[in-house]
Fold this protein.
Amino acid sequence: QVQLVESGGGLVQPGGSLRLSCAQSESIRGINTMGWYRQAPGKQRELVAGITSGGSTNYADSVKGRFTISRDNAKNTVYLQMNSLKPEDTAVYYCNARGHDGPWPLEFWGQGTQVTVSS
């Protein structure tokens, strides 16, 4: 069964940095877009950043200039470099992969990794 395996979360002080990684357990044919979402307590899950197989990226306004998403297609891995972290970035971060297998939509989620920004 295909899995998205996340790593890199943890506790960091405001202004600090973390790097999240998400690796596909096996290459998933048809995946085009990979991204990161987050969900804080009592809030809806929201898109943080996404990247296509061609390298096009998009970011939530709240993280522009601080977070960078990148992708290593050879390793089937996506990264999220998070700098200048703020307490409001505290959330569970989820990796997402989506695409199509012929006419059928594909979507996979990671198990989530906790990011806590606190002094």
In short: The radius of gyration is 14 Å. The mean pLDDT is 94. Residues 42 and 91 are 10 Å apart (CA to CA).
